[in-house]
Specification:
With 198 residues, this protein is α/β, with parallel strands linked by helices. The protein has eight helices and six strands. A six-stranded parallel sheet has the order 2-1-3-4-5-6, with helices on both faces.
């Protein structure tokens, strides 16, 4: 069975995906990754930007994996799907930007609220762009997109945009879902993820 690497968003907490992971079939192999220096996670002097997060995940990809990613983690997952396509078997992108122009698709700016909630987080997370626009149309991994219809940070228009650019991508819309829908609607999204990764 292919291992799943769960990638959180800018909150950085590995336990973000725990509610979904516990609902997957018992034999599922998975790792819940965290981001050093983001949210309330301890800092690591070796992590100074998004490229270092990409490197951290890539080092865990000793075999082909499935990537299940939230928000900012989705940009990292998309980058890896493009950079090492032979190591990404399947992809789940949840309320992410996927490296596209968010402002042009109606997204609100999350950075001030993030800074207030996470005053000790590394400065680069709100100062540095996680990537330039990514050529997501070159992603070959079968991709599931999970979006809420009530998310100002990554509005549904972003999900539709990515669906139009990633060949064969399937979009599932969670009614009432906001930016934390993987936690609040775990019972709905876990079976979708399990089917996609089967």
């Amino acid at each position: 069975m292919t291992k799943i690497l769960f990638l959180p968003g800018a909150g950085g907490a590995p336990e973000f995906w725990q509610p979904v992971a516990t609902l997957l079939p018992p034999a599922t192999r998975y790792d819940l990754l965290g981001w050093p220096g983001l949210g309330a996670q301890p800092h690591d002097p070796a992590v100074r930007g998004f490229d270092d997060l990409v490197r951290l995940v890539r080092e865990r990809m000793t075999e082909p994996v499935d990537l299940v990613a939230q928000s900012m983690g989705g940009v990292i997952a998309a980058r890896l799907a493009l950079e090492v396509p032979d190591k990404v078997r399947r992809l789940v992108l949840t309320v992410t930007s996927g490296g596209v122009d968010m402002a042009g698709l109606g997204a609100s700016d999350w950075r001030d609220d993030y800074r207030r909630a996470n005053p000790r987080a590394a400065a680069w997370v709100t100062e540095e762009r996680p990537s330039p626009d990514l050529p997501v149309e070159r992603i070959v991994a079968p991709t599931l997109l999970l979006w809420g219809d009530d998310d100002p940070i990554s509005p549904l228009a972003v999900g539709h945009h990515l669906q139009s650019r990633i060949a064969g991508a399937r979009l599932h819309v969670v009614a009432g879902g906001r930016h934390d829908l993987a936690r609040t609607h775990a019972a709905e999204v876990a079976p979708l993820i399990a089917r996609h990764l089967a």
